């Protein structure tokens, strides 16, 4: 099997769909995707918990254990590592790797709209790489999502790379010129979050992007489809969304 790191090819980006449970992950793997990620929003919402507040460590580990032996490469969105203590974050990473995960996504955004201090986030990354050297650490900075802090992007990515990050992730980044410049500046694969109104996967590849994540998009689309379908039936309208058969869904757990 091709290693997870080898799938990150600038110009031919890894398209990483993000699942929120066993069925969505296995179904996506069945469509031939080279690797599957998880979405922290989907995992949290499905459990009735808030995202980005370190509330879903147990749920995240449980899902990783369910998926780790499913025959596909798995990268786990672990928010900020569920702790401010680098040693505890490293323990989470070790548990995820033991469950079969080959990658982890660590973010520096805070629930209150701020950012983790650079030194602390770098210490988390270094601790993870020391504990589980083979785990692909995708270091995410939320500078573009927060707005007004874009100027910190380069310095944060530099610090995260120096700490051992295998890849860097800048969600909210969609301007082609900025993406192309960042590709040239960073020394590791650049991950961009796909946006329906932004560049296509092919266009991002032309810019040198090495990984394109779908984040919570699939979960939110699925939830919208369920709500639209229920509303259409209630109003006497037509069901327009396609649906897998009972047998197909049952097969996902076989």
In short:
This protein is an alpha/beta fold and about 250 residues long.
Structural write-up:
There is one protein chain. The protein has one domain: Alpha-Beta Barrel (TIM Barrel), CATH 3.20.20. The radius of gyration is 18 Å and the shape is globular. The chain is an alpha/beta fold and 254 residues long. It has a nine-stranded parallel sheet with strand order 1-9-8-7-6-5-4-3-2. The two termini are 23 Å apart. The model has no long low-confidence stretch (mean pLDDT 96). Helices cover 43% and strands 13% of the residues.
List key phrases describing it.
single chain; 254 residues; alpha/beta; TIM Barrel; 13% strand; globular; 2-methylisocitrate lyase-like PEP mutase family enzyme; ICL/PEPM
Helix content: 40-55%
- Overall mean pLDDT stands at 96
- Give the termini distance in whole angstroms: 23 Å
CATH-defined architecture: Alpha-Beta Barrel
């Amino acid at each position: 099997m091709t290693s997870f790191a080898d799938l990150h090819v600038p110009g031919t980006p890894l398209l990483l769909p993000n699942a929120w449970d066993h069925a969505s992950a296995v179904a996506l793997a069945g469509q031939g995707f080279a690797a599957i990620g998880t979405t922290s929003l989907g995992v949290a919402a499905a459990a009735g918990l808030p995202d980005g507040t370190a509330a879903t460590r147990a749920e995240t580990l449980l899902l990783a254990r369910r998926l780790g032996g499913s025959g596909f490469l798995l990268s786990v969105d672990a928010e900020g590592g569920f702790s401010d203590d680098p040693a505890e974050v490293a323990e989470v990473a070790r548990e995820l790797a033991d469950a079969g995960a080959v990658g982890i996504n660590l973010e520096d955004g805070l629930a209150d709209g701020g950012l983790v201090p650079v030194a602390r986030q770098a210490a988390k990354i270094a601790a993870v790489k020391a504990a589980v050297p083979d785990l692909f650490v995708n270091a995410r900075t939320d500078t573009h999502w927060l707005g007004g802090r874009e100027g910190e992007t380069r310095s944060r990515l530099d610090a995260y790379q120096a700490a051992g990050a295998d890849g860097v992730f800048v969600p909210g980044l969609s301007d082609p010129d900025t993406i192309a410049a960042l590709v040239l500046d960073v020394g590791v694969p650049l991950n961009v979050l796909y946006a329906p109104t932004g560049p296509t996967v092919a266009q991002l590849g032309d810019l040198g992007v090495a990984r394109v994540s779908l984040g919570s998009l699939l979960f939110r689309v699925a939830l919208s489809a369920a709500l639209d379908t229920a509303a259409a039936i209630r109003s006497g309208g037509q069901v327009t969304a396609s649906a897998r058969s009972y047998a197909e869904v049952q097969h996902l757990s076989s």
